[in-house]
Amino acid sequence: MYVRIFAAVWLLVCALLAVVAWGFQAPFSYDPVGPRAYPLLLLLLMAAAAVWLLVKPGEAEDLPISWSLARKVALFIGGLFAYALLFEPLGFVLSTALAGFGLGLLFNGRPLPSLLSGVLMGTLLYGLFDYLLDVPLPMGLLAILEN
Amino acid sequence: METLNFLAQGFDVALRPINLLVALFGAFVGTVVGLLPGLGPINGVAILLPLAFALGLPPETALILLAAVYLGCEYGGRISAILLNVPGDAAAIMTTLDGYPLARQGKAGIALSLSAMSSFIGSTIATIGVVLFAPILANWAVAFGPAEYFVLMVFAIACLGGMVGDKPVKTLLSALIGLGLATVGVDATTGVYRFTFDSVGLSDGIQFVIVVIGLFSVSEMLLMLEHTATGQQAVKASGRMLFNLKEFSFTWWSTVRSSLAGFVIGVLPGAGATIASAITYMSEKRMAGTGGRFGEGDLRGVAAPEAANNASACGSLIPMLTLGVPGSGTTAVMIGALTLYNITPGPLLFEQQPDVVWGLIASLFIGNVILLVMNIPLVGLFARMLTVPTWVLVPAITVVSVVGVYAVHSTTFDLVLMAALGVFGYLLRKMDFPMSSLILGFVLGELMESNLRRALSITNGDLGILWSSPITIGLWVLTAVMLALPGIRWMRARAKAKLAHA
């Protein structure tokens, strides 16, 4: 069932992208193929595969959705997006400490050890990446401390 | 003779202190990444890639690091397979079948040491194969024009569908999604923006590191989330720690056969270590017949797949180095690494960058010795790493992945894209779509399109060039065979079922 739903959605995506791809035209070009043909070919093949899966989705088992797990997955995804969006404003150290704490709890860690591992990760990895490996990381809020 | 000179030159490069150090580090990290359930060579290489780049390592050193990680993962996967009944990486799935029963019988030490030995034999045989065949293939590949390249890539994708077998359509769709992701960004020939939806972040195309880390690492964390509840206890490695001569000679021929088969499967573009270990396990089981105790703790059941997955890992470097077409998901990531250094793998690499190529090949020999020496006495240490709790492990991997992605462009956009791709990858994996095909498609994408367009420019749009030379015709025939395989297998299975029914 899930595969069928996916195949249907994907077919729709292919159609929408094909409309977008139809507009890919170079003002002038010496290339007989142009920028449009190849993406359209791919979309056509993808649509064919999606139709196949719609008709014959295979024997994938349809497990009932476990809501407690779905909640955890949603929390993880939300946390990850939050980490991504807060990475620059809060800075590496703070956002990583938060993410380490949150993810630790999500993976059944106890609050205090998770908090500790989050803070340690934020500070130690900042030192490792920024000073030793020369990977520039954002300071964010902690930039005030620098001045 | 010339090859030996080049190899000697390679050893010169590989034996430089920095390269030895990097190989040692890579072997250690690789083994750890390999043994942690869920993390495979692709994750290991993907996580270390931005690091290697940020450290400013020269290309040959970076490549040696990544290759050592790759080999190390193939060694490490077996540890959790044997002690935990959970494959450390996909290629070790077959090792669980006999490895865990052996561990339960108190033979964990023997299974671990013997499989380390067969891993060593597998990679060594395959590395010799690389030395012998890679230069020949590179010489031959110089004759490849754009049309030949395009058909070769069609063949690579057909290999995926044919070999992965039971779900050819999903494999194909995965590869197509990968090819499609590669079209995002400015079209190199005409400068037209494709699928960027007016976003600056996408105008440059989707960065390779983001795709790999999103699809593999992030989706992996989500899958790990599902398994946190199942706290499995590792069997303690007890009993005799080293195999004896009798056990070694018992598995010797299985190991050699599986090494050769694994090498050949590795060389085929698209087919990787997972398939190699599955095929060799099955064929050893069939050969042993009723005399074997496969599934209940047969030593050949750990020796064969381990030899094969290591051999295949080395073998997959051949198409990567000589043709620029990855032989496995991990080599796809390594091609990405080379392009970060502005090095295009392909036949000319042997002429233009002998240091890189031969340094890498020589380092495989050295890496193998390091891994064997490391794996037999340190197995206890590695086994203890299986007890790192997920609540520390997962956040740590997440942070390293995020830093890896951020290091590329320093924009939040990339991080959000990574998270989104992770969710997409998670959904695909839940529905059994193979991710390695997607990555292969993504790596081949740009090459495939540019070669097709270049070929058609030569003939001014006449498609005939795609089947005008003996090489292209030969490749089309091979492609047809690969595409027909699932059909043939299906028909045979149906005939069998009918027979059983009658």
UniProtKB/TrEMBL annotation, chain A:
Provide this UniProt record's keywords sorted from A to Z.
Membrane, Transmembrane, Transmembrane helix
Q: Does the keyword Transmembrane helix apply?
A: yes
Q: Which residues form the DUF1468 domain?
A: 5-138
Keyword Transmembrane carried by entry: yes
Where does the sequence pass through the membrane? 37-55, 67-86, 92-108, 115-133
Instruction: Give the matching InterPro entries.
Output: DUF1468
| Taxonomy, superkingdom | Bacteria
> What name does the UniProt record give this protein?
Tricarboxylate transport protein TctB
The organism's lineage is: Bacteria, Pseudomonadati, Pseudomonadota, Gammaproteobacteria, Pseudomonadales
From TrEMBL, chain B:
The protein's UniProt keywords, in alphabetical order, are: Membrane, Transmembrane, Transmembrane helix
Known InterPro entries for this protein?
DUF112_TM
Q: Which residues form the DUF112 domain?
A: 20-440
- Entry's transmembrane regions: 20-39, 46-71, 109-134, 140-160, 172-193, 205-225, 260-283, 321-344, 356-374, 386-406, 412-428, 464-488
**Family annotation (Pfam families):** TctA (PF01970)
Keyword Methyltransferase assigned: no
Q: Does the keyword Transferase apply?
A: no
What's the protein called, per UniProt? Tricarboxylate transport protein TctA
Which organism's genome codes for this protein? Answer: Metapseudomonas resinovorans NBRC 106553
